[in-house]
Structure formats: structure tokens, C-alpha cells
Amino acid sequence: MKENKNQLWGVWSTFGIFVFLYFVIALVTKEQGFLWLLLTAYSLGVSIFLLKKHKLRKGKKLIMPVVFTFFYMLSSIYSFNLFSVIHAATVFLASCAVIATFTDVMGSFHWVKSGMKYDFVLSVFLGILIGVAWGIINYLLMREGNEKIPTEFMKASIVALNPAVAEEIANRTVFYAFCVHAMKGLPTSRKENLTCWFIMMVPHILPHILFSLEGGFVNALVSFIVSLVLYILVFGFVFAFLQRKRDVLSAMVAHGLVDAIRFSIFGLPFV
Prior knowledge:
globular, mainly alpha
């Protein structure tokens, strides 16, 4: 346990560096785009570290990273730029890092709960069910104060592949893999479990809540904490829960559908 504890300190220390840079960038530039780039750099750094420790898999193990990268690039067809290439590379490396880490530490890794067809169907069904429910909740939360910009659902769905793939894999799964590497296995104690839940939710949420850092110090602090807790409870937890208790596919489907609904009603964010 002592060895695990020391290695989890590595997870927390890298997160601490990320948070420090987050507040520097947030308070100096107030630009959300820079925060997303910071999160991408964080994910890329973790991915490269894990690949250095567990080595890149070849052959069939590269099929899904290539597929995920293709879907991400597809999501960028309406707003392709240099950052799209950087994010695509991050998705590919993060996918490879997840496979390499879990294969080394746990013996195997599956994007779907098992290789059985009924598990694939069940994961998709569960993702759709959760996606529709949370999509409605998101609409109810956004309908006041946000301009409605109706968009073709197919176009919205293509763009929604961006968060479905990039955010779930590069901003959530790879951080879980980082914890698994540090613990040399799945979490067994409350402290280890809390670390995994935290690191799967908070880094991804922080760029979303830049808006809370307004006003005086006390007001900004209270607003930031309240926003963080609400985002965890309303959105962060459900996708992390699906990944840990079901599989990555169900979380990707749910996340993508939530954003597809949002984009079709309130407009596209990346165009």
C-alpha cells in the first residue's frame, strides 16, 4: 500500500501543476480556448508517459485508436484547423496509452464490456437512454438565457463526435489509466477510489467553468466551488460512472447524444 500511496502522489502532483497553470491562464487571459489547450497538453503528457512505461501496441491493437481518430477528424470537417490535428494526435495517443496500460497491468482491455454482441447492443441502448435523459436535463438548464439556433440534427451529431470521442477518451479514460498505472491495478481502498473518481471528472470540468471566476475574490471562489460541484453532480459523475461500471462505449454514446441535442437546439460551438 505504501508503494501505491507514493505513486498516487504522482497523479496528484501532476494534477496540481495543471490546476496552477489553469488559474494562471484563466486569470491572466480569461480565454477558454487556452484552457482547452492546457487540458490537451495535460492529456498528451500523461499519454506519452504511459506509452513510455507500457509501450505502444501494434497490429490489431491499433485498429480502435485509428477508428477513434477518424471519428474525431470527421467531427472537425466544419472547423478544421491546426488544433484539430493536435487534438486528433492526442486522441490517437491517449487511445493507445489506455490499451497499453490496461493490457500490461490488468492483462486485457475492452472498449465494450465484453466481446459479446449483446453487450455492444446493451451499451449502445444504455448510452442512448442516458443521453436522451441528460440531454433533456441539459436543455432545461440552458433554455433560459441562451439563444436558440436550430441546427440540422445530423450536422449536430457529426460535430458531437468531438466531445464524445476526445473528451471521453483523452479527458477521462486516459486519466483513469494513469491511476491504474500508479496503483498497479484497480482501486481497492476508499482513497484510491476517490482519486480515480476525482481525476476522471474534475480536469475535464475545469475549462467549462471559466465563467465562474468573475467578480471579487470571495464571490469568485464561492461561484467556482458551487459551479464545480454542480457540474460534477449533473454531468461529470454520470459519464465517469458509465465508464467505470459499464464501459467506455456507453459513456461515449451518452455524451455524444447529450451534445448532439444541445447543438441542434442552441447551435454549434466549434463552427
